[in-house]
Specification:
Elements lengths: L5 H12 L5 H15 L5 E8 L2 E9 L5 E3 L3 H9 L3 E3 L17 E9 L2 E10 L7 H13 L3
Antiparallel strand pairs: 1-2, 1-6, 2-3, 4-5, 5-6
Helix pairs in contact: 1-2, 1-4
Length: about 150
């Protein structure tokens, strides 16, 4: 697997979101960019916090769970802790929510707007151990761009 050029992805993401203030347009374009740019992923999308739970937002991939409670699954845990979670093997993660049975590893990155938790960026892969420290750093950098 080739290393992802996160500098290039950051430039592309910045070009897509500059001047745009609609969260649906921003996250839809970023989900498409990530899904089509990252190798070996089967889901790239966003969940936003609404009424105390995560609600599915724009994404690319197979159909997904719509509602996720805080503390449930990788997304709910990352949301509750407001920190990135990298799971090399989702089948070993207590409480994993299997929206797509083909997923084997996952990374979830919190997204903040105006200093407050907004939601998460969720990326799944059919490959075990898909996400590295470089992916975490790169995706956290992209998440910081979204509402800044």
């Amino acid at each position: 697997m080739a290393d992802t050029d996160y500098d290039l992805l950051q430039e592309q993401a910045q070009a897509l979101i500059t001047g745009e203030d609609d969260w649906v347009a921003i996250t839809a374009n970023l989900a498409a960019l990530l899904f089509n740019s990252l190798e070996e992923v089967n889901f790239a999308g966003f969940y936003r916090m609404k009424d105390g739970e995560l609600i599915l937002g724009p994404f690319q991939g197979q159909v997904a769970c719509v509602h996720i409670q805080l503390g449930n699954g990788v997304c709910g845990t990352a949301a509750q802790q407001e920190k990135t979670i990298v799971v090399p093997n989702v089948h070993e993660f207590a409480g994993h929510i299997a929206c797509d049975a083909a997923s084997n590893s996952e990374i979830v990155v919190p997204v903040f707007k105006d200093g407050r938790f907004w939601g998460v960026l969720d990326i799944d892969s059919p490959k075990l151990n898909r996400f590295s420290e470089a992916d975490q750093i790169g995706l956290e950098g992209l998440a910081e761009l979204i509402f800044n």
